[in-house]
Design goal:
Chain lengths: 342, 437
């Protein structure tokens, strides 16, 4: 039952990375691909109707973490206190920017929010990547099962780690590049004109950079957390996920060059799911690995009592089916291509 | 200051600021649904009113969402020990809120705001309905979570000190939740109605957009009157009886009723003196407290001194003032709306300038009443975070130091001050443009 909920949780997070990640990626590229007001409007229009429901996947994943693994929520949220607060403030700025930039037709007002959206999207991708990096690397849990990480210590992967060290910053950077690439592929698929051309050119470079980063990251993970080797030998099939991640990015590169823009975007979606699955398999059966392995928090220790987990499946499954229906409806009602003059 | 105090300050500040927005949006969601339903019969004034209120709704909703996300995260960041103990139960309602309510609201809000042409009239009405239902459903799950902390049901404590859910049905039909929910939603409806009536009155006083302003007023004062009455009878009465039965020391403290008495008086105004345990300068109605509590003028009402000191709410004067401010303002709301409805029925509301002035100036007060009401609930529950089960003092994240919370509290204050300024600027602009644009 714990494993089922761990998979469902990761599915929700993965869906956030794929859908919300598109909006973050578009936000990151916003200032580079659109140089005047019409084009900026065009870029924002491509995500404006969907960014809110997309972001709800993150909120709902938080709720699901609370439901299924309250101890993991308690330990990790308080341990990553400062980083999470930073994430909250960035979410505030970004959400406001997307909604409020249209409220005043003033040049400075719009410039301010454009920069706010771009900067907060970039930092959010970095923070979320770094958070994932922290989980994979392991956190300094003590014998009482709690920890508190400062934002940084000495940037080394030692015993007293900070939230930012060379490894988590590498993961953060990979997340930024992966989402920027994802956003570029989205723009390439659904907008027209000059913005599309710029996104197309950017995606070529970002895709290659991402493949290089992913390969470097997989190597680095063995250095940052030697226990990986044991995990890999226990579950050799887990190797399909990193391979699928790299393969997905490569397929996106090929399809985009051949002009199959939507196929390229979906390949990138698969790659993002696979990246998160790589991380999931690498920590399982822990939900929060520790620097000192004996203090690790396993999914069984972190889980809520089983009766509640069983009950929750009865409403969670129909609930998510309804959500699927909403998303299908939204996407049938929205235009497929975003024109410059829309 | 010790860390728990700073955690409480941050949670209290962010929650109070956040709730300024949902009370507007939940109230307006109902009013917009009513206007959109009128518009379905080809009423173009109502339809333009919907477009105007959707603009105000949209900005308020955005503020509500961005200030709401920190609330959900703070359970884990600031109240880790509480989350660990209670997650098995309240994780259910919070996750349900995400899956059933947030997705519904977020998916259809864009269509309510910008999708009228694309969806057509019927589709736009459906969007208005779903946004209304979504926001009210979200309210239920949050109130249900709070109600479990006020009056925990459907669980048992395990040896590890965590709550194990024994009945999801009991959690969702907690009698406290049902009473608290109706009372809260009625409160939000009052805010929405006073906002709509206040802006209608403003336009009429300035002789602008008069057709629309009259429509705002007629819808808002009728809904506002019903809601104001319901806030007292029956929902306020039910809520008070819940507190009497399940949190008796809290009830005594709310009333600043220190000593057990027959024929207990209801204090209207007066200052609780915690040194002498008396009310200074009381203005009181003899017997009324006995009557309202037990429907009998001579009934005995237990005083606060009857209970051991460690069960008293920590801040009796604050609790007393919050409760009295809520009740006092609620009484004014009934009077104002009753008068307005009577003038509307006599068809002179739009020309009674004195009444329009009152309605316009009354606009901020429901926000104060709703905030005071929530503070009554939360301050009244102290010293417990889960009533009778877990004390607030042992609920915070023990690994997050007061210095770190102080840093983020100041950060929230700065950020929210900015949000408040932006919100006011945008509201003034939208109201200045009016419904005809």
């Amino acid at each position: 039952m714990e494993t089922i909920w761990f998979c469902l949780l990761m599915f929700m997070l993965g869906t956030y990375v794929v859908l919300g990640g598109t909006d973050l990626g578009v936000g990151i590229l916003h200032l580079c691909v659109a140089r005047n007001e019409t084009k900026r409007q065009q870029v924002i229009r491509s995500i404006r109707p969907v960014w809110k429901p997309n972001e709800v996947w993150l909120i709902a994943a938080g709720g699901t973490l609370f439901l299924a693994f309250p101890t993991a929520l308690a330990v990790s949220f308080s341990g990553f206190y400062l980083a999470l607060m930073l994430v909250l403030w960035l979410l505030v700025l970004r959400g406001l920017g997307l909604e409020l930039r249209y409220q005043l037709p003033d040049v400075l007002w719009r410039q301010f929010w454009d920069v706010a959206v771009s900067a907060s999207s970039l930092l959010l991708a970095l923070c979320l990547g770094a958070a994932l990096g922290n989980v994979v690397r392991g956190v300094p849990l003590d014998e009482h099962g709690v920890f508190f990480e400062p934002l940084w210590t000495n940037f080394r992967v030692g015993d007293q780690t900070g939230i930012l060290d060379w490894y988590t910053m590498l993961v953060g950077l990979a997340a930024v590049v992966a989402l920027a690439n994802h956003g570029a592929l989205w723009l390439n698929a659904c907008v027209e004109g000059d913005v599309r051309d710029r996104a197309n050119r950017l995606a070529a470079r970002l895709g290659v950079a991402l493949i290089a980063l992913l390969i470097a990251l997989h190597g680095a993970s063995f250095v940052a957390r030697p226990e990986f080797r044991d995990g890999l030998s226990a579950r050799p099939w887990g190797v399909v996920f990193p391979v699928a991640a790299v393969g997905g990015v490569a397929a996106a590169l090929v399809w985009r060059r051949r002009g199959k823009a939507w196929r390229a975007y979906f390949a990138s979606c698969t790659a993002l799911y696979a990246m998160l699955a790589t991380a999931t398999v690498s920590v399982y059966p822990d939900i929060l690995p520790a620097r000192v392995p004996t203090y690790a928090l396993s999914i069984e220790m972190a889980a809520a009592p089983r009766s509640g987990l069983v009950d929750a499946l009865y409403w969670w499954i129909p609930g998510i089916i309804i959500v699927g229906a909403y998303f299908t409806y939204i996407h049938t009602k929205l235009p497929k291509t975003i024109r410059e003059d829309g | 200051m010790d860390a728990v105090t700073v955690h409480r300050l941050q949670f209290g500040f962010t929650a109070a600021f956040h709730y300024l927005f949902p009370q507007v949006t939940m109230g307006l969601a109902l009013l917009i649904f009513i206007l959109k339903t009128m518009a379905r019969r080809g009423d173009e004034v109502a339809n333009r009113a919907v477009r105007f209120w959707a603009k105000i709704f949209g900005v308020s909703f955005a503020l509500g969402v961005v200030t709401g996300i920190p609330m959900e995260f703070q359970f884990g960041t600031n109240w880790a020990r509480f989350s660990r103990a209670a997650g098995g139960v309240i994780g259910q309602t919070l996750a349900m809120e995400g899956v059933f309510a947030f997705f519904m609201e977020a998916s259809f809000l864009y269509f309510l705001l910008y999708g009228e042409k694309r969806l057509g009239q019927r589709g736009h009405w459906v969007a208005a309905t779903l946004v209304w239902l979504g926001s009210w459903l979200s309210g239920y799950f949050i109130v249900c979570t709070n109600a479990w902390m006020q009056h925990p049901v459907g669980f048992e404590m395990t040896e590890a000190g965590t709550a194990r859910l024994t009945s999801l049905a009991a959690l969702l039909t907690n009698p406290w939740a049902i009473v608290e929910y109706v009372h809260t939603m009625v409160g939000a409806t009052i805010t929405g109605s006073f906002v709509m009536a206040g802006i209608g009155a403003l336009y009429l006083l300035r002789r602008q957009h008069e057709t629309y302003a009259k429509r705002f007023l007629s819808v808002a004062v009728v809904v506002g009157f019903i809601a104001s009455v319901m806030a007292a009878m029956p929902t306020g009465d039910w809520q008070a009886k819940m507190v009497v039965n399940h949190q008796p020391p809290t009830f005594a403290a709310m009333e600043a009723h220190f000593y057990t008495q027959d024929r207990a008086a209801m204090i209207l105004i007066g200052q609780p003196n915690m040194q002498t345990l008396h009310i200074d300068n009381p203005i009181a109605i003899p017997g009324l407290l006995s009557f309202l509590t037990y429907q009998h003028w001579n009934a005995e009402v237990k005083g606060l001194t009857e209970f051991p000191r460690e069960e008293w709410p920590e801040n009796v004067p604050l609790l007393y003032y919050c409760y009295h401010i809520m009740v006092g303002l609620g009484t004014f709301f009934i009077a104002i709306m009753a008068l307005a409805v009577w003038l509307l029925w006599r068809r002179v509301l739009a020309t009674s300038r004195w009444m329009l002035w009152i309605l316009m100036l009354a606009l901020p007060f429901p926000f104060i009443a709703n905030t005071a009401g929530w503070m009554t609930a939360e301050v009244g529950r102290q010293p417990w975070v889960i009533h009778g089960i877990m004390r607030t003092a042992v609920a915070s994240s023990e690994n997050v130091s007061s210095g770190n919370v102080g840093f983020t509290l100041l950060g929230f204050m700065g950020l929210y001050a900015l949000l408040a300024l932006v919100y006011f600027a945008l509201m003034i602009r939208i109201i200045g443009q009016g419904p005809e644009k």
